[in-house]
Here is the input.
Amino acid sequence: MGALLIVLLIVLIVFGLGFVLHALWWIAVVLFVLWLLGFLIRRPSSGSGSGPGAGGGRGRWYRW
Here is the structure.
């Protein structure tokens, strides 16, 4: 009886970890696509950078 409970607990832990990993992969893919879109949309334009950290006209879409 005790061994059955241990096996069931292990199965639940492995299933839960697999589900979490699968969800984290999808979250990572969505964040990567959003980052890529933001990077492609804000291409450097004319070359007039304003504000702190404007690297020679390279338009940054992030603050850090």
